[in-house]
Amino acid sequence: VPKDPAxxxxxxxxxxxxxxxxxxxxxxLAYHYGRGVPVDHNEAMKWYLKAAEQNFPQAQFNLGMLxxxxxxxxxxxxxxxxxxxxxxxxxxxxxxxxxxxxxxILARVATPGSPSPVIxxxxxxxxxxxxxxxxxxxxxAPVRVPTLAPPPVTLPQTTPRIETPAVQPPP
Length: 171
What we know:
The chain is mostly helical. Helix content is 49%, strand content 4%. It has six helices and two strands. Helix 2 packs antiparallel against helix 3 (41-52) and helix 5 (73-88) crosses helix 6 (92-109). The radius of gyration is 31 Å and the shape is elongated. The chain starts with a helix and ends in a 31-residue tail after the last strand. 25% of the residues are buried.
C-alpha cells in the first residue's frame, strides 16, 4: 500500500476527535513538524494537550518540547511541568531531558568558589513512580551576594571657628 499522508491525516483526525490519545499525539506531531500539513504550533499544542491531559507520556514530552522552544521564562516553566509529568509516567526521554536541563543550568551558574548552585531540580532518576499528582521539586539554594557598604565619608578635620564680637568695657 503506497503511503498517503493526506489519507493518514484524515484517519488520525477522525480517531483523535473520538478521543484516541495516540492519534491526538500523532496529529500534534503532524502540525508541530509540518508532516502533511503546514506547521501550526497552536494546532500542535491543541492536540498534544488533549492527549497529555489523558496521561499520554509521549504527548506530554512533545508538549514540553514545544514549550521549551518558545521564548519566555513562563514557557520554560510550562515545558518543565510537562517533562516532569511524562517522567513521572516513566517516559525515559523526559527523564533524559530533565537531566539535560539540570546540567545546563548548573553549568551556567557554577563558578569557582561558588558556595552552591543557584537552582536545584530533583534529578530525573529520583522522580517517583506514577501515583498521586506531584509538582516538580524546584528550590533556590542560598546565593552569596556581596554586601556593598557605602564609601566612608571623610569630614574636614578643621576646628570650627566661632566669631564673637569684642566686648567693650563700660565707660
